[in-house]
Each structure stands twice: as C-alpha cells, then as structure tokens.
Amino acid sequence: MNNRLTQLKPGRLIAWRGYLSILLLSCISYSCQKDFLDTVPDKGLLVPEKLDDFQALLDNSSEVMNVVPFYNTISDGDFVMSDEGLDGQLPQYRNLYTWASDIYDVTTVVDDWYRPYKQVFYANVVLDGLKELNTDGADVQRYQAIKGSALYYRALAFYNLAQEFAQPYDAATADKTPGIPVRLESDVNIKSVRGTLANTYTRIVDDLQEAETLLPDKGVALTRPGKSAARALLARVYQAMENYEQAAKFATSALELAHELVDYNDLDTAAARPFPIPLTDGNPEMIYYSRVNTAFLNQLTVTAEPALYNSYDDNDLRKRLYFTEGGNYKGTYLASAYPFGGLAVDELYLIRAECSARKNDADNALADINTVLIKRWKTGTYVPYTVTDPAAVLQIVLNEQRKELVARGLRWTYLRRLNKDSRFAVALTRSYKGSKFTLPANDLKYTFAVPDDEISGSGIEQNKR
Predict the structure, then answer these.
(1) In order of start, what are the domains of the chain with their CATH numbers?
(2) pLDDT tens by residue, 327-366
(3) Helix (H, G, I), strand (E, B) or coil at 315
(4) Nearest to 286 by CA among 247, 229, 237
(5) End-to-end distance of the chain based on CA atoms, in angstroms?
(6) E-strand stretches of 182-264
(7) In what residue span(s) does the RagB/SusD domain sit (predicted)?
(8) Could you tell me which of 267, 78, 338 has the C-alpha nearest to residue 330?
(9) How far is CA 371 from CA 154, 246, 376, in A?
(10) Residue 82, class by beta-carbon neighbours within 10 Å (0-12 exposed, 13-18 middle, 19+ buried)?
(11) Of 416, 407, 365, which is closest to residue 389 (Cα–Cα)?
C-alpha cells in the first residue's frame, strides 16, 4: 500500500524547515531511524511528508521516545549505596541520593527535564504535520494510530514531568498550584509558561482519552502503544490523582485487553538475568516497553533497602528473581542493567486492588492480590489472603505494590501520594560518611527544581525547595 500523502501546505513550509532542522540534529544525535534519514536528499531541508516519516520519528525508541526519568529512582529510598560507591558518582547523583536542596551543579544537563520535553517536541512535530496532510486516499487506520501514538507519548512525557517538577496532585488546590509548561506546538520560538496543576492533568487525561479512541487494541510492537497502554496509563494517572473510581475503571478496561501474568516458577532464580528479553523473546505480561534511564541500581555497591529486602518471604520467588542473595538488583522485565519503566499487567491488578480496598471491598481487593501472588510464590507454598478488616486489607495492598513494582520509577509518585495520609506517611533516611540525611513526608524536596537555564530563558516560576 502506498502511504505517501500530499506534501505540507506551502504557507507552512518555511516554518517547518526551521523546526525540522532542529529535529534533524536531534535525530542524528539520538540515532533516529536510519532508513528515514537516508531517503532525504537534502538533509538540511528535512520535511516529513508521508506516514512512514512520522512513524519513524516516533520509533526513535532506544534513546528518546521509550525512555523515562530516573532521578526519582535514585531518590525514592528503596535502595542504598555504600560510601565508596557514592564517592564515585557524579555530584548530581550524590545530591539526589541525599536529598540536597541544590541538586544540580553548573555543568549539569538535567536529563529528566530535557528528555521528556524532547519527547513532547517529537510528538508535537508529528501532530502539527498530520494536520497539514491531505488524508484523501490515505491509510486512515495507520494515520489514526500515528496520531494516537503521538498523543500518548506527549501525555506520558507530561505525566512523568509532573511527578518530578510539580507538586503532588491535590484536587482541592490543583487550580492554584503551578503545573509544568504544557507545550502543544512544535514551534520552538513560543515561550514556555506554567499553567496550573489542574491544567497539566487535564491535558494529560484529554490526550490519553483521545489516543485511546485512535489506537489499535495492542501496539504492533511493545515499543508502540495500543488501547491497552492508553487505558493502563490512564489508570496510573487517575491513581496519582487519587480518583480511585476512574483508576479502577481504566485498570479493568485495560485488563480486558491484556491480563496474562508470567508464572515466576517458570523462571530460573539462579540466572543473572532471569527474565526474557522482551523485544526479542517477548513477555506476555508487558503492555508497553520503556526503560528507566539509569544503570545506577545495577552496581555492586547498591543493595535493596534492608526492610524492603527482608519483607519478601523465602518462598516468594521475587526475592531471588529481583535480587541476588546479597540484595543486589538483578533487573526485571528488561533483562538488562536498566530497570523496566513501562506498563505491565501486574500493575493493573494492584491498582484495581487498591481501588477496591479503598471502598472497603475486601473480597475483590484480595482476589486481585491473590491472582498476582500465586504466580510469584513457589508452587504449593502460597496461602491466599483471607483478611476482612478494611484497614488491614489496604495495608496489604500497599505493601505488595512496593514489593511487586520495585525499581519501576513508581515509588516516588506513590510516596508523594501516600504521604498525605498520616497512616502511610514515612520519613526516608540515609547516611553518607557518618552524616544522616532525612526526607520528611510531604517535604518540598519531593518536587525537583526546574533547571536554571529554563528559568532564565523563559522566566517561569521556580519550585520552592
């Protein structure tokens, strides 16, 4: 099938050449798909003009589109690093680890800010370009899938930025709390502004809901989103917003499309990388592939926080699949040094379990917990939970969320949300060279500073820390 569409309208060509020259430099730096670049005779005047071109921009998966932030993973308290290990880290990482007020030094490139906004830029280039194409005779389903993918990527980037650079969502104050810059155009000359947190989350939800209507049920590859990914991400977003009714709704609808769990009894606990490589061997539990952009955890000087490690029963296979006997992190669903940061079926069961527990529906909450755990324990050793006390059920669910979803870039958001409830608030503590460091519940340091050059360039408000 010929997917070439008509070229961009002449009145837009000059502007697009400017935007896409920037994009071309980014693509070259981040290994944008080679076949796309090689077909352009004049790379200084690169202008996407067919669906293949737009898809190629979104398929820059290994360095741009399928990478999620990592500062939260260093800061979330689930792992500890020895003094010797910290001595060898960049100052920025030591600052993140000890929750310093000033994280960045003068040489810092704030990857967790710039990479998501690169994703937003790519998505906006595609969305702007699709508006300028004449769809007569086009492959409509593919056009819709590409548009839906761009909306999904943009929403995911905005969501990830909000977890680090905006305060935790609170419905009572969201319309008065600064959000993040929500850029909806690819024109880099438009100055960034900060709207409210309510505006930020409204845009995230709107993008995802539109994406869900456009995408196929499942992406043709794990690096591409489908309806299942859009619904799963909506469940995650609504959970962060403490809208548990909507979180349960979208978790359930996502599970209608993807519900298979891996039986951990089929994996080799003695292996250095026990899980299959998802992009070559597949993983039926994975809905959408992303990697947390750091190998910080995969060092001999890093071990699981002792209370977390000891919370796994010896018959719980996760203890040996996720960690070595000494507590070093093995990696999980990516089968690599990089943690998995995407979406998977187990998270959906656990989101729905929490939603059920919060409305005192112990039976359904524990049904979802038991569904997951029977696949995680040695065959014949797991005794299903039968607790009836609502508070106890909710605590069980929250404990299992931490144990199941370790090192997925989620713990930081969970802490930000749960710390608002005194029943679950925790103060994180760490030590380095004899000094003790504490991050109290609800501390302003749960929101990272916006990079200084962004403040000076756009004049947006800095976060208080």
Answers:
(1) 10-426+441-458 (1.25.40.390)
(2) 999 999 999 989 999 999 999 999 999 999 999 999 999 9
(3) coil
(4) 229
(5) 55
(6) 194-196
(7) 347-418
(8) 338
(9) 33, 22, 9
(10) middle
(11) 365
Q: Which of 35-39, 140-144, 248-252, 329-333 bottoms out in mean pLDDT, i.e. has the lowest? A: 35-39
Q: Specify the amino acid at residue 34.
A: K
Report pTM: 0.91
- How is residue 313 written in tokens? 């029963």
Residue type, 52: D
Say which amino acid occupies 220. Answer: V
Triad 156, 162, 164: Cα angle to 5°: 115
Bridge partners of residue 79, in order along the sequence? 304
- C-alpha 37: how far from its chain's center? 28
CA-nearest of 105, 110, 71, 74 to 451 is: 110
Contact 133, 6 (CB under 8 A): yes
Backbone angles phi, psi at 137, to 5 degrees: 75, 10
Amino acid code (one letter) for 7: Q
Nearest by Cα to 286 from 408, 378, 374? 408
Q: Is 365 exposed, middle or buried (0-12, 13-18, 19+ CB in 10 A)?
A: buried
